[in-house]
Amino acid sequence: MQPKREDRAKEAADSIMLFVNDMNGDVETFLTEISKGHRTLQQSFTRLCFRWIEKNAKTKTCDLRNSASIEKCKEIVEKVDSLYLPLV
To answer: Model pTM?
Structure first.
């Protein structure tokens, strides 16, 4: 039985949170593995990252733990004409 889309999304988010919570996470290996993926999947991953930036830029509530990322996301959204990437 294949998991539901929502369950897969939650599992992926949990996995990413575990990865970024590891202060010694091997970011270079992560980036290398993503860059080995199918080109369409690479673009889809970048689209996902852009969606995260857009969502963060709209965040109203923040504190010292995430204020720098919220502010940087706002800067990015303000300076870039569009974060749209087509699905090819």
So the answer is: 0.87
